[in-house]
What we know:
2 strands; mainly alpha
Amino acid sequence: MARVLRKAWHEAFYECVSPHTDAPDQYILWSAISLIGAALKNNVRFEIGTFTLYPNQFIVLVGPPGVGKGTAMN
Length: 74
């Protein structure tokens, strides 16, 4: 039986991670989005005609030094 979250997945992730880091909320959110993309790997694809398209994303956290970019990525 599948587990059902009581909240949206990104809110549950934020509540789990935010007490342990001082990274800004947006950094935590985008780290969660990259986590979902990493978990899906190449299992999600769109077959269009004769070629297959794999959705990909490039996430760049931009900010001054010491804000928490590395903490959010780790």
